[in-house]
Design goal:
alpha/beta; Alpha-Beta Plaits; Rossmann fold; 2 domains; 7-stranded mixed beta sheet; 9 helices; globular
Length: 282
């Protein structure tokens, strides 16, 4: 048996809640977001909110997490139920006809290229709309800018940096301020045999050496605004900046912060209620 704890939160906070639940001892967290098809018999989501369903092997840990996050008390569930649901939630993601992101238990089609990402320990398996927007645009840019240098600010699971590695980027740096997430990214790099990435435990992008052709920052609006000058300084002339982690109504504020740093707008892309803002340095 295991103990399931349900945390209700706004969609933009679900990944944060998941990280907190892992830190509190969860060994699996399922995210249910607005618009996502739910398993038959699953209660509807509250209006404007999503759910993080965490599974704990120990009742004491589950109770402590419930108190910490002010959630309803955990309930006991058969262990096999959540483990199968966990796997069902993480399916292969197809970025192109021959390019896939897979959890470790899946196999890529013959002749295709793939990344293996262990889900759950850090944000960014590729399934979330913001990560998917970044991955798709990075793939397009690296097709146009062969051997471009790439910086991934707030790398999470490392999936964006790992995609850049797979696609033949030049110098690849991935920074993260959470040591647990960075360790997860390093583990994913080992799963993929990716040895060229510079993994940096760093809160201040300005401290990263050099500038880059492609800079990706898939983080929350308040952090994007706070770090605007530092992140913008890492974009070299002719380079592109991809900002995500943004709800549609936040896109204008994010863009405004970086226009003030001398960048100019390129385009915005939307998936569900999330947006990617792209800018460039002349």
């Amino acid at each position: 048996m295991s103990w399931a704890l349900v945390v209700v939160a706004p969609p933009e906070e679900l990944e944060i809640r998941a990280a907190e639940l892992f830190e509190l001892g969860a060994n699996g967290v399922e995210l249910q977001e607005p618009g996502m098809p739910l398993m038959p018999g699953t209660p509807a989501l509250p209006p404007g909110a999503g759910r993080a369903i965490a599974h704990f092997p120990d009742r004491a840990d589950a109770l402590r997490a419930a108190a910490e996050l002010r959630a309803e008390p955990p309930v006991e569930v058969p262990a096999e139920d959540w483990s199968e649901a966990w796997r069902a939630h993480h399916r292969p993601i197809q970025l192109a006809s021959d390019l896939f992101i897979l959890p470790p238990w899946e196999k890529a089609p013959a002749g295709s290229r793939s990344l293996i990402i262990e889900p759950g320990m850090a944000f960014g398996t590729g399934s979330h709309a913001t990560t998917r927007l970044c991955l798709e645009r990075v793939r397009e840019l690296l097709d146009q800018m062969r051997g471009a240098d790439v910086l991934d600010v707030g790398t999470g699971s490392g999936v964006i940096a790992l995609l850049a590695h797979l696609l033949g980027a030049g110098r690849i740096c991935a920074s993260e301020n959470d040591p647990v997430a960075l360790e997860s990214a390093r583990s994913n790099a080992a799963l993929n045999g990716a040895s060229r990435i510079e993994w940096l435990l760093e809160e201040q992008p300005a401290k990263i050496d050099g500038s880059f052709d492609v800079v990706v920052a898939n983080i929350l609006l308040n952090t994007l605004e706070e770090l605007a000058a530092q992140i913008a300084s890492k974009v070299r002339p002719g380079g592109r900046l991809l900002l995500s982690g943004l709800l549609a109504e936040q896109a204008a504020d994010a863009e405004r912060a970086y226009l003030a740093q001398g960048l100019r707008p390129v385009e915005q892309r939307r998936r569900e209620e999330w947006v990617l803002v792209e800018l460039e340095r002349a």
